[in-house]
Amino acid sequence: MHLSLASRLAHTGEYYFSRKLRELAALNAAGANIISLGIGSPDLPPHPSVTAALSASTAQPGAHGYQSYQGTPVLRAAMAAFYQRHYGVTLDPATEILPLLGSKEGLMHIGMTYLEAGDAVLIPNPGYPTYRAVAEICGAEVREYDLTAVSGWLPDLEALAATDLTRVKLMLVNYPHMPTGTAADRPFLRRLVAFAKAHDILLVHDNPYGFILNETPPVSLLAVPGAREVAIELNSLSKSHNMAGWRVGMLAGRADVLADVLRFKSNMDSGMFLPVQQAAVAALALGDDWFEELNATYRTRRQLVLQLLHTLGCSVAPGQTGLFVWAAVPPDYADGYALSDVVLAEARVFITPGGIFGSNGLSYVRASLCQPESVLHEALQRVEELKKSRLSVLAEKLPSVSPEQPKSQHLNA
Fold it and tell me: Whole-angstrom Cα distance, residue 151 to residue 127?
């Protein structure tokens, strides 16, 4: 029997990290012992109160049955309280909060709710690859907006306004931005809201990184005056609470939009496991000391990752936020793919090529902070050995050196 692939997948391949993790697993099975600094999956555990709540909940009557498609009232109230406490945003837990099985699921739900052939969606370049995949699967036209180092990794809203936006329904935005770690300030967010109002575009703000290595208080787009009219916001406990595998996310904002999304979502799942919901309530109640301890660990790790990237000759812009370090590759390499391939093959360390996030990421790589210090020390040692071996090869290829011309001048050329 021959099955033809659905046309909706014509331009959408398997997710990069799905393929890459399988490749790395095969290398490790063959004895390669690869250190992966690729995907941002926190290796640290959730707070003990979170796992205790999960364990206690599993013995409750009804814990293992189907749950509400909208989550429990207690979970929605905890999510609303989290927004009030950390962002100063007041939300009605009954109508303006929709729990999700991870925010990645929410992106697909939003796309399937609003996008179809003939519509267009604005996505960042570079940006999370799932944004493009969702638009393509939904049959919409993908329109990239450029983010570059020159523009501070912020979109040129005036240039966008000069284009034909009549078919654009959604604009996907993500600050603090992944992969570059850029945090958007409030003046920019106000201009973004004004842009969306002027062109009748729904902003979908993906906001999971605001609590990781952010030197300023985290910001919700919904806190910007007027944003509630034109924006919804995705959030997640994956990074901020070390719960990536638990799949706990949320969609916040306009009640009518959330009701539309629920029409699709309620046909796709049967609710979140009750003990996970009750554990999420415990996580959302954690105080600032939780984030301070988490960030102390990540600060130490970031210094080691910065050393590793500098050893490779990469340059890193200051002020980055989140679980990753975004770095420009040295001119010796054609692009981030070339550097990533060399480091994987010769040092058995994997760093993500920036090109997977879009053409504006080709000259960059991204390294994750989600490895223990001991592993990062080992990765750094391997990269230092790689640098020494490459310098040795270069020295062997250099012409003989006269006494008047020290050898170090050749090596620094």
Answer: 15
Question: For residue 349, how far is the Cα from the chain centroid?
Answer: 21
Please state the pTM of the whole predicted model.
0.90
pLDDT in tens, 189-234: 999 999 999 999 999 999 999 999 998 999 999 999 999 999 999 9
More confidently predicted of 3 and 347: 347
| Pairing relationship of beta strands 120-125 and 168-173 according to DSSP bridges | parallel
Give residue 1's identity as a one-letter amino acid code.
M
Compute, in degrees rounded to 10, the torsion defined by CA atoms 329, 333, 336, 339. Answer: -100
Query: Are 252 and 228 in contact, with CB atoms under 8 Å apart?
Result: no
206/222 Cα distance (integer angstroms): 12
Q: d(Cα 275, Cα 54) in Å, to the nearest integer?
A: 5
pLDDT in tens, 128-178: 999 999 999 999 999 999 999 999 999 999 999 999 999 999 999 999 999
User: Closest Cα partner for 106 from 224, 216, 206?
Assistant: 206
Taking the C-alpha atoms of residue 129 and residue 223, their distance in angstroms, rounded to an integer, is 27
Chain centre distance of CA 235: 11
Domains identified in the chain and CATH numbers? 7-44+289-397+406-412 (3.90.1150.10), 48-286 (3.40.640.10)
**Residue 88 is encoded by which pair of tokens?**
């100063």
From edge to edge, which strands make up the β-sheet containing 168-173? Answer: 97-100, 249-253, 231-236, 202-206, 168-173, 120-125, 141-146
Residue 393 has what pLDDT?
Answer: 58
Residue type, 286: L
